[in-house]
Amino acid sequence: MFEVAVDRSGPFPVLGLRGHLDHESVVQLDEAADAVPGLPGDGQPGFPSGGGTGPRAAGRNGLRAAEGGDGTAAGAPPVVVADCSRLHFCDSSGMSSLVRLYQRLRPSGGVLRIAAAPPAMRRVLSLTGLDGAFAVYPTVDEALIRPVGHDFPENAPFGCARAARGR
């Protein structure tokens, strides 16, 4: 079973991932991303669905940076935090769903911040090099307090450098 909840009470929207993110449940993450206003492609069905079932708690929550109401400048690049602290399993389909979210954010200079990934997921992120594309943080709090534009050191190849280790 998989659930995703969108929380916009902090400075950036947080996608709380819970359970097993696999080929049967990726559609829920894709739909939750579609429900984040201000995300590039907002309001357009942009992701292929996997046909999964299960509860989804994602409303029209999202990026307040476009409004300038969260302490960031209006027009600031979008930031989305994926809280993986309650994620028990993530297969290649789940990783692909995260890559699609990253690909939506990247053209506008946005960042996908992966927070509190379990050890097995961190290993896959490292082996695949995705820990260089996503900004990876040890905790959700650390992902939320990092200012926009400070996820990766300047001069980092691929716009990356493993935020959790690059401080």
Automatic annotation (TrEMBL):
UniProt lists compositionally biased (Gly residues) regions at 40-54
Source superkingdom: Bacteria
Q: Where is the STAS domain?
A: 14-147
Output the Pfam families linked to this UniProt entry. STAS
Disordered: annotated span? 35-72
Q: What name goes with this protein?
A: STAS domain-containing protein
> What is the species listed in this Swiss-Prot or TrEMBL entry?
Streptomyces tropicalis
